[in-house]
Amino acid sequence: MNYTKTAILLAAMTGLFVGVGYLVGGQAGMLIAFAIACAMNVFAYWNSDRMVLSMYGAREVGPNEAPNFYSLVAELARRAELPMPRVYIIDTEQPNAFATGRNPENAAVAATTGLLNMLNRDEIAGVMAHELAHVKNRDTLIMTITATLAGAIGMLANFAMFFGGSRDGENRGGLGIIGSIALMILAPLAASLVQMAISRSREYAADRMGAEISGNPEGLASALERITYGAQHITNHQAEGNPATAHLFIVNPLNGQRMDNLFSTHPSTENRVAALRELAYRSGFAPGFAPRPAARPAQAPQANRPAPQPSAGGSAGSGPWGGRGNAGGGNSGGNSSSGSVPSSSGRRRNPWGR
User: Fold this and answer.
1) What is the rounded CA–CA span in Å between residue 327 and residue 94?
2) Strand, coil or helix: what is 345?
3) What's the pLDDT tens digit per position in 302-315?
4) What percent of the chain has pLDDT over 70?
5) Cα–Cα distance measured from residue 30 to residue 243, given in angstroms and rounded to the nearest whole number
6) Of the residues 4, 128, 188, 252, which has the fewest C-beta atoms closer than 10 A?
7) Burial of residue 64 (number of CB atoms within 10 Å: 0-12, 13-18, 19+)
8) Where are the domains of the chain?
9) Could you say which DSSP state residue 249 is in?
10) Separation of alpha carbons 216 and 122, rounded Å
């Protein structure tokens, strides 16, 4: 989505906020709503990232608290030619992630504990590359301001029940009970439509750029399928209490919605996965994610050198570290040198520093 269209949609969101103010309080209400909208946009510009992270109880981590996760984000940021963002973890079982911040220099990425525990390394790399694509495209500020305005529109529409009547002959609203109820329903719905228009196209663009950053569209495609399943079966209580922020996440975190799927701020997972797998097919991406090593001097070919054989535990890309050994350098257990999948007991180890 180009920036002109985004600016038009943000103007529409602000205009909707002002229009609701006019219907609630007439000309004076319109002016007050316009002033509030301007103040909220300025406040959101400087504080939106802290507001959202605080809302979800996110805690910042570094190389000591989550060494493997932090180093993975650092590698992806290097590939994307971005400054290192702040890294956060949200303690909730639902797998999901989002990015926020007013610009790449002040960006933050957050992942839930559910995502870090349920997904393997290739999938997590795809998810975080998607979030860094939002940062690189400067989507994070737009989406956060949109969430702030959408929540304010819903709040302002609720005031219609208290200030919807007209006390004199001027045009000061005069909505009446029926008009006030209609405003309470239609204003948030209109705000959701604008959110949808802003968010849906950006998700496709971030999917594509994220696949290019990670070098593995299949990893992101698989992650989207698993996150969608988790979001449908595990409740994110913070998101359910703040639905205006749902469009910040890589997958819609609201698992109780049926009627509003038509107005979802996210494209369908099936369409996103199909687009990623078509990209992988056309571009010939090799499966698996691994840090890009420094260039090595060319070696003379060896005659009759046997081709490497996959291990008995699966392909070279299996396991949370892609079968490439201990990428984080912090795991113990004596099996890091073999690069094998976790032990045969069936319990997957958590390699994300938790």
Assistant:
1) 25
2) coil
3) 544 454 444 444 43
4) 67
5) 26
6) 4
7) exposed
8) 3-252+265-283
9) B
10) 8
DSSP summary character for residue 236:
-
- Judged by average pLDDT, the poorest of 43-47, 80-84, 189-193, 230-234 is 189-193
If you ran DSSP here, which 8-state letter would residue 338 be given?
Answer: T
User: What element of type H or E holds 203?
Assistant: helix 176-214
Task: Tell me the pTM.
Answer: 0.68
DSSP labels, 252-278: ---TT-SGGGGG-SS--HHHHHHHHHH
Confirm if 140 and 107 have CB atoms less than 8 A apart. yes
Give the residues across from 97 on adjacent strands.
111
Cα(251)–Cα(264) distance, integer angstroms? 10
Catalytic residues: 131
Q: How far apart are CA 116 and CA 354, in angstroms?
A: 9
Please tell me the chain's helix, strand, coil percentages from 3-state DSSP, rounded to the nearest 5.
55, 5, 40
C-alpha to C-alpha distance for 11 and 6, rounded to whole angstroms: 9
Written as one letter, the residue type at 247 is H
Residue 127 near residue 73 (C-beta atoms within 8 A)? no
Residue 307 CA to residue 300 CA, distance in Å, equals: 16
